[in-house]
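TA notes, week 10

Several of you asked for a full example with nothing omitted. So below is the full record: structure tokens for the whole chain, then the designed sequence directly under it. When grading your own attempts, check the secondary structure regions first.
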């Protein structure tokens, strides 16, 4: 038993929720050995049987959606209804990979008549899934399901900010799997680091901060593990002169304040054309002032968010709405709008990951597009415009994995865009994630006639 523990306090009022022991060094070693031993049999299991296990797990997950949503709410403060939607999204993701997995295949090659040539997909082996707190069930289900349905085994370490949610998710999924095919470890960054530096790990899939992603990439360069990294984002919203400023403000508020801005693809910086800047800011301020938000995940994160706001104000930004630290217990923070923001401010240059809408007024579409395309992150971006040529330019020129036109959220299921730059590497979700979780073996099978 580890001597270290993780204490979870309520984001609502700061009261203790529970305390859990972290995995010890021996726990990590035992988990790696156990999944490695379980790998050959699970890899030999027919794809249809692996898919059936995921279908059964999805059914169980739906049955326990209320329980998992409550745990998510208690640990992270997430709105209860949104947390339940996240659980159901996780169940849908299990079903998606249960359907896609048996269809994932290699291809035949045209070689000599006396031989058979094929490219055959095989599981990579031991997958370590390090998953986040902001949507813990949906994100975890995607990585875990894609790994399992292709014959890999998984060690899952949920974020230390939602250990009970992650543990119960592991129990729900594990009920339908052979022993040790999926092992969940409770732990902090040290536990994650011990998993990442192991030479007995074949894939490290991480959704979280850019800083941690860089450390994982460095460790994998030494061990040879494949990495799938969806890290920080600094997603821009570009607002053209020809759109309704009221509607644009609604879109901006949705993108910046949904889940308290704690979404990987939240709107992090706003570039609005000068012709509609005044009515846009007035509308956005009105929406922010009338918005009541649940708490942020914890006070440590709230300090980070408020630090970005204070830095912007000190450098000349104007507080349009919010931006003041609430008194009292918990980790609450108001919907905040800042104007007169400059590119060097952290609210525009870095990921705030909170309910902050920093606005920069631009003279024309060209300036807005150029500034929206700047920076080291490359996760997603949105453009609001009635101009088809501007929309075409935006999606072509923005160096990100996902571009949304006239909607800050949405998209068809199965999208698997690749993050770029500091935002990570590798496909996330969609059929392409199955490719990431497998490796290819080329087979040349000569016949006896070929030998003669």
């Amino acid at each position: 038993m580890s001597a270290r523990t993780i204490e979870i306090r309520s984001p609502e009022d700061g009261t203790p929720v529970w305390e859990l022991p972290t995995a010890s060094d021996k726990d990590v070693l035992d988990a790696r050995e156990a999944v490695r031993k379980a790998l050959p049999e699970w890899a030999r299991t027919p794809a249809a049987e692996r898919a059936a296990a995921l279908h059964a797990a999805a059914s169980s997950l739906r049955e326990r959606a209320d329980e998992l949503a409550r745990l998510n709410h208690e640990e992270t403060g997430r709105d209860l209804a949104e947390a339940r939607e996240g659980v159901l999204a996780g169940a849908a993701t299990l079903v998606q990979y249960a359907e896609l997995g048996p269809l994932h295949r290699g291809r035949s090659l045209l070689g000599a008549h006396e031989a058979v040539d094929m490219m055959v997909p095989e599981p990579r082996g031991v997958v370590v899934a390090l998953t986040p707190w902001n949507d813990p069930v949906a994100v975890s289900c995607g990585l875990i399901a894609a790994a399992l349905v292709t014959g890999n085994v998984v060690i899952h370490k949920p974020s230390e900010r939602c250990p009970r949610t992650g543990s119960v998710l592991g129990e729900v999924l594990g009920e339908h799997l052979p022993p040790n095919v999926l092992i969940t470890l409770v732990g902090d960054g040290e536990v994650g680091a011990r998993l990442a530096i192991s030479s007995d790990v074949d894939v490290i899939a991480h959704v979280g901060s850019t800083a941690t992603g860089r450390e994982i990439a460095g460790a994998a360069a030494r061990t040879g593990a494949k990495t799938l990294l969806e890290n920080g984002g600094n997603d821009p919203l570009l607002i053209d002169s020809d759109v309704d400023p009221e509607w644009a403000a609604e879109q901006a508020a949705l993108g910046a304040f949904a889940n308290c801005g704690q979404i990987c693809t939240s709107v992090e910086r706003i570039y609005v054309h000068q012709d509609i800047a005044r009515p846009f800011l007035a509308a956005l301020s009105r929406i922010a002032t009338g918005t009541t938000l649940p708490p942020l995940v914890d006070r440590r994160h709230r300090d980070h968010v408020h630090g970005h706001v204070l830095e912007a104000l000190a450098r000349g930004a104007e507080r349009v709405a919010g931006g003041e630290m609430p008194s009292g217990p918990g980790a609450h923070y108001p919907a905040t709008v800042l104007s007169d923001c400059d590119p060097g401010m952290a609210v525009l240059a870095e990921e705030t990951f909170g309910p902050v809408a920093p606005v920069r007024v631009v003279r024309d579409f060209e300036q807005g597009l150029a500034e929206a395309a700047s920076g080291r992150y490359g996760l997603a971006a949105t453009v609001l415009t009635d101009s088809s040529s501007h929309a075409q330019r935006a999606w072509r020129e923005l160096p990100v994995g996902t571009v949304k036109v006239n909607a800050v959220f949405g998209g068809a299921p199965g999208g698997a865009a690749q993050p770029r730059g500091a935002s990570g590497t590798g496909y996330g979700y969609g059929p392409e994630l199955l490719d990431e979780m497998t490796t290819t073996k080329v087979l040349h099978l000569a016949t006896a006639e070929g030998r003669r």
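The chain has two domains: 24-231+423-444, 236-405. Use that as a sanity check on your answer.
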